[in-house]
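Schema walk-through. Below, the input block comes first and the output block second. Nothing else is stored per chain. Lengths vary across the set, and this one has 112 residues.
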Amino acid sequence: MSITAFTLGTTPFSQYSIASGNSISDNISIEKISGYSVQINWSGASNTTATVEVQASNDGINFITIDTTTLDVASDDKLLNVERAMYRFIRINFTQNSETTGTLNVVLGGKY
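--- output ---
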């Protein structure tokens, strides 16, 4: 299992690598943007039951889940759009069952 998440507003994107299994990305600052999108690309086993949560925080310590998507097929792509984000940080939380195998790529985009 590998998860790749990218920071906003850098060219090229800076890559965050997070551990396999149940994983949480590094905090990603979104202070200078007004909205963002989260593109989720999954490729893996058909018996997958996994979730991807977008979590938000103002202090970078206490996070609240603002959106959740379930991955339950061998190949799945999702795009979450968030307008008027007034919090300072987001992170990606990936949770899988014991039979989940595959690759998850998460790409963030934003507008200043």
